[in-house]
């Protein structure tokens, strides 16, 4: 087994600290990746602080991983040493299933998450991208387009696909009006992707503090939800609303912004129950739905789309020694718009 170095959480109330651990021995179907950058997702914070009550310590977080192939197994055909690659939120799926639905593998039992999970051997803990290397099955490695910079591509592996998947599923395109709730790490990717799809994009944010950014990134309109007149003015406007925030909102008020047959999709993860009145849905045949990342096939499609349209995340690069401070800044919404760890800083 190879020795890897990274940063890990050892308990819910402790800061991340330097950590040395073993990666599993590569098999014939595996790709070994030298990690160069890893995005910081709010899910990392939820997990290491055990806010979802499923943490198994120690945890090396990180599922927005990009780097370069350093070795391949004898059966690997899609990748070679030196290729630019990425790894997203899962590294195996439907282990032991008789059949696999490759379009919906991320919703099936047996999903092996990139960290805080158990690998296909049933015993090795998976550890994420806040580290210098990772071993992944070929089928879960993604190709990064040559024209995209690796550092700003990292957040595409979670934030990007989290927005791309519902946009594609609900058929975003010319003639559609879509609202993105929240202008953060997820929301700003939604604006970029929807704009590239030819959609009329509106941002709904608590304030107008990021309005200039939103319009620059492709939004056609930008409204403050703290202004009560916003909901009156925009009633019945949108075909699709994608909610990226992880805090409580007035769900019924937002559902009132949908057209007949409109859908509101939840991709943020609020801790509290979602209270919705039946009559926010029945008149107008409206829907409230959820969406979670995307399949490997769809994630590669998203990366290729981003390559075609030169779409990457707006990032702030940090050294790994600053990760605990970065977490606090994420919680204060003090980042525009995604932290990305420079893994080379492990050697500092």
UniProtKB/TrEMBL annotation:
Q: What class of enzyme is it?
A: oxidoreductase
Q: What is this protein called?
A: NADP-dependent alcohol dehydrogenase C 1
Q: Which residues form a coiled coil?
A: none
Pfam families in the record? ADH_N (PF08240), ADH_zinc_N (PF00107)
Known cofactor(s): Zn(2+)
Q: Which PROSITE patterns match?
A: ADH_ZINC (PS00059)
An example molecular function term from Gene Ontology annotations: alcohol dehydrogenase (NADP+) activity
Give a yes or no for keyword Metal-binding in this entry.
yes
Recorded hits in Gene3D superfamilies, A to Z, give:
Medium-chain alcohol dehydrogenases, catalytic domain, NAD(P)-binding Rossmann-like Domain
- The Enoyl reductase (ER) domain sits at 8-341
- Judging by the UniProt lineage, the source's domain of life is Bacteria
What is the species listed in this Swiss-Prot or TrEMBL entry? Ochrobactrum quorumnocens
Q: Sorted alphabetically, which keywords does the UniProt record give?
A: Metal-binding, Oxidoreductase, Plasmid, Zinc
Q: Which SMART domains match?
A: PKS_ER
Q: Matching InterPro entries, A to Z?
A: ADH-like_C, ADH-like_N, ADH_Zn_CS, CAD-like, ER, GroES-like_sf, NAD(P)-bd_dom_sf
Q: So what EC number does this one have?
A: 1.1.1.2
Family of this protein: Belongs to the zinc-containing alcohol dehydrogenase family.
């Amino acid at each position: 087994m190879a020795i890897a170095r990274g940063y890990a959480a050892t308990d819910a109330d402790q800061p991340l600290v330097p950590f040395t651990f073993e990666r599993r021995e590569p098999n014939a179907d595996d790709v070994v990746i030298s990690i160069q950058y890893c995005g910081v997702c709010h899910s990392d914070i939820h997990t290491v602080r055990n806010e979802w009550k499923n943490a198994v310590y120690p945890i090396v977080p990180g599922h927005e991983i990009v780097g370069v192939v350093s070795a391949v197994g004898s059966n690997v055909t899609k990748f070679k040493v030196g290729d630019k690659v990425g790894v997203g939120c899962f590294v195996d799926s439907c282990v032991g299933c008789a059949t696999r639905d490759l379009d919906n593998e991320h919703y099936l039992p047996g999903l092996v998450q990139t960290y805080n999970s158990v690998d296909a051997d049933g015993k090795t803990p998976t550890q994420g991208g806040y580290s210098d290397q990772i071993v992944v099955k070929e089928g879960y490695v993604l190709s990064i387009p040559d024209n995209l910079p690796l550092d700003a591509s990292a957040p595409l592996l979670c934030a990007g696909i989290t927005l791309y998947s519902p946009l594609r599923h609900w058929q975003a395109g010319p003639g559609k009006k879509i609202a993105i709730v929240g202008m953060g790490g997820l929301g700003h990717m939604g604006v970029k992707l929807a704009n590239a799809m030819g959609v009329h994009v509106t941002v709904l944010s608590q304030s107008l503090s990021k309005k200039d950014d939103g319009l620059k990134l492709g939004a056609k309109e930008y409204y403050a939800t703290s202004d009560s007149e916003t909901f009156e003015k925009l009633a019945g406007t949108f075909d699709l609303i994608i909610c990226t925030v992880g805090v409580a909102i007035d769900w019924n008020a937002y559902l009132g912004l949908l057209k007949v047959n409109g859908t509101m999709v939840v991709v943020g993860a609020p801790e509290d129950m979602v209270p919705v009145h039946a009559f926010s849905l029945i008149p107008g045949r409206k829907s409230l739905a959820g969406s979670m990342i995307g399949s490997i096939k769809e994630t590669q499609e998203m990366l290729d789309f981003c390559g075609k349209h030169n779409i990457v995340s707006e990032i702030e690069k940090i050294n790994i020694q600053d990760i605990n401070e970065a977490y606090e800044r994420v919680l204060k919404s003090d980042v525009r718009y995604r932290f990305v760890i420079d893994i080379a800083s492990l050697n500092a």
